[in-house]
UniProtKB/TrEMBL annotation:
It is found in: Cell membrane. It holds the Pfam family BPD_transp_2. It comes from Patulibacter medicamentivorans. InterPro entries: ABC_transp_permease, LivM-like. The keyword S-adenosyl-L-methionine does not apply. It is a multi-pass membrane protein. This is Branched-chain amino acid transport system permease protein LivM (TC 3.A.1.4.1). Keywords: Cell membrane, Membrane, Transmembrane, Transmembrane helix. The keyword Heme does not apply. The chain crosses the membrane at residues 20-37, 49-67, 73-94, 101-118, 163-180, 214-234, 246-277, 297-316. GO terms for molecular function: branched-chain amino acid transmembrane transporter activity.
Length: 326
């Protein structure tokens, strides 16, 4: 039978709660990461390909402050996010005056610079070994959530190791989604749309377009840094390979799937992409491990190609919102 069906799938795994919780956690993290891209790409018209670089900065600064400087975990989080915003402002001042395609290339280079610094500045970042010993406070908080929240709804006896992180991630994702949705419906958000559609016209109306683009990039960096911190709580250490440029492009896949300017589409797109990525782990392609990994992304790519062919505006997007500034 196996010879007739080379693709063997373990359906039993789908019934395991850990599978769904794991998908939910990563989908929530990608939702947070992509909310920043939605603000930049969907509303401001700037092609930010360095979002994972801001995630790495947030994670590394938080982890280093806690593990090496003995800071409070809760204090290290806002400091790490603030540091990422400062880096974004400096990057934006230098690069936002460039042509759109040059800016996109510059942001890719930025994310790679961050990763190579993390990889090679071993005295500061611990190199490929990564930063460890920063989650003691989180583990204590996680136990409290299990006892105080999950016990209260009759789930305390179920061993969902990542359930507290799932709850925190999605609460944060939904709060950020609602906040950004409110901001983009305000006069400030209407200026961003004007910049996206015709920056020269917005400038002629007396708007300081560079300032607004810097604000958009800074907010996206803050959101991205927070996503990096959440990812650091999901992984055993903060290491360079956790923040590859590939993950920004997965964020773009989420954005395309959900639809430009659709905040709820970000959440739905993240759930779909992450489910496909995790579900394809269960398929036996009869290939090597590296080939199987590549095949998973090929499948995601095919899903996106089909979507672009039949519904280019995404699941929740609108065709009139697909026009981006030059």
């Amino acid at each position: 039978m196996h010879e007739l069906l080379p693709l063997a799938i373990s359906f039993d795994f789908f019934n395991g709660a850990d599978f769904w919780v794991g998908v939910g956690v990563l989908a929530g993290i990608y939702t947070v990461l992509t909310l920043g891209l939605q603000l930049n790409v969907g509303f401001t018209g700037i092609q930010n390909f360095g979002q994972i670089g801001f995630a790495a900065i947030g994670a590394y600064v938080m982890a280093l402050l806690v593990s090496d400087a003995d800071w409070s975990f809760w204090l290290a989080i806002p400091v790490a996010i603030g540091f990422a915003v400062c880096v974004a402002v400096v990057l934006g001042v230098i690069t936002l005056r460039l042509r759109a395609d040059f800016f996109a290339i510059a942001t890719i280079a930025f994310s790679e610079i961050v990763r190579y610094i993390a990889q090679n500045a071993r005295g500061l970042t611990h190199g490929n070994q990564g930063v460890q010993d920063y989650v003691a406070t989180w583990r204590s908080f996680s136990r409290d959530v299990r006892h105080d929240v999950l016990d209260g709804i009759g789930m305390g006896g179920v061993e969902f190791n990542q359930m507290p992180l799932l709850i925190v991630t999605w609460i944060a994702a939904l709060l950020l989604l609602l906040l950004l949705r409110h901001l983009t419906k305000s006069p400030w958000g209407r200026v961003l749309r004007a910049i996206r559609e015709d920056e020269d016209a917005a400038r002629a109306m007396g708007k300081n377009t560079l300032r607004f683009k810097l604000q958009s990039l800074g907010i996206a960096a803050a959101v991205g840094a927070f996503a990096g911190i959440l990812l650091a709580l999901q992984t055993p250490n903060v290491a360079p390979d956790n923040y590859l440029p590939l993950y920004t492009f997965i964020g773009y896949a989420v954005l395309i799937l959900g639809g430009l300017t659709s905040w709820w589409g970000v959440a739905v797109g993240a759930l779909i992409v992450q489910f496909v990525l995790e579900a394809t782990r269960l398929i036996d392609f009869g290939l090597t491990e590296s080939q199987t990994s590549s095949m998973r992304f090929i499948i995601v790519g095919l899903v996106i190609i089909l979507l672009v062919a039949f519904r280019p505006q995404g699941v929740f997007g609108k065709r009139e919102e697909m026009v981006l500034g030059d």
